[in-house]
């Protein structure tokens, strides 16, 4: 898994690209604070090599809790900026710092 951040000089946003190698998966979503944990707003597209990928424009100077939803299983990003305990879910969420 990987996250790529591209800060834009012309806008107060960061283009964040989420890449998830999940060759056997049929669907992968990124869900978090930035899309109200709604899978329909975080669909990643499957590439020919089996990797799922998607880019989102997120406001800079903020932090966001998120997780991947891979075929109904929640997974954290291994390269997250940090992790945050979430009482509601009873587990840690990955955190993205912009």
UniProtKB/TrEMBL annotation:
Keywords: Hydrolase
CDD domains (alphabetical): E_set_Isoamylase_like_N
Signal peptide: none
Transmembrane regions: none
Entry annotated with the keyword ATP-binding: no
Gene Ontology MF terms: hydrolase activity; starch binding
Chain ranges of the CBM20 domain: 8-98
Top-level taxon: Bacteria
Statement: the UniProt record of this protein carries the keyword Hydrolase: yes
Name assigned to this protein: Glycoside hydrolase family 13 domain protein
Taxonomic path: Bacteria, Pseudomonadati, Bacteroidota, Flavobacteriia, Flavobacteriales
């Amino acid at each position: 898994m990987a996250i790529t951040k591209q800060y834009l000089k012309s806008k107060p946003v960061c283009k964040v690209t989420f890449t998830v190698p999940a060759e056997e998966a049929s669907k992968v979503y990124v869900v978090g604070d930035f899309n109200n944990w709604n899978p329909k707003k975080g669909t990643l597209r499957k590439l020919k090599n089996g990797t799922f990928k998607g880019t989102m424009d997120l406001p800079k100077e903020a932090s966001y809790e998120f997780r991947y939803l891979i075929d109904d299983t929640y997974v954290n990003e291994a390269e997250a900026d940090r992790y945050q305990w979430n009482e509601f879910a009873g587990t840690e969420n990955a955190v993205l710092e912009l």
